[in-house]
Amino acid sequence: MTAVADLDMERFKGKWYTHSLYPPLSLKVPKCQSTEFVEKAGHHFIVKARELSGQTGTVRFRKAPILKVEPKYGRYVLGTKNPAFPEGVLLYVLDTDYTNFAIRFMCFDSSHIFSFHWAVIQTRKRLPSAQVIYMAQYYANRAGLMISDMSKVHQESCPPDT
Fold first, then answer.
1. Would you say residue 2 lies in a domain?
2. Angle at CA 45, nearest 5°, toward 159 and 104?
3. 35-75, pLDDT tens digit by residue?
4. Which residues pair with 156 in a beta bridge?
5. Membrane-spanning regions, if any (predicted)?
6. Residue 45 domain boundaries
7. Were both Cys, which of 41, 71, 104, 132 would link to 7 (CB 3.0–4.6 Å)?
8. Which residues of 119-128 are buried (b: 16+ CB within 10 A; e: fewer)?
């Protein structure tokens, strides 16, 4: 898989709504997911993630710093409190047009025992047009993602704070 050749975080920042993703290990896909890339002072970024809990119906909120951005490789390192990833988690932006869709990807290998893959198609609008979805899925497929393995994230009837 290849990532964008020159990731422009200035254009990438802002809110993205999750359209579809490789299902998490729990296989339960939360509703109303969004991710916001926010610039702090001095070209430092944080990521704010929100989703509607299927169990409680409340909004879950997570915030993490972006520790490092490597624009020419189309990737960034997301900070985490998980002790398994003391240096953070490396995520790639496989493709984006910055105004309609983004495709992000992460994978890691655990001592050659198992490999974990995570991918997400996100859009700038909570309910994008069919044309935007088609375009995003087309480029995700070209990047090597299996669209048929992705689960749709429901964005209908979402509270405004997600």
1. no
2. 70
3. 999 999 888 999 999 999 878 889 999 999 999 999 999 99
4. none
5. none
6. 9-152
7. 71
8. bbbbbbebeb
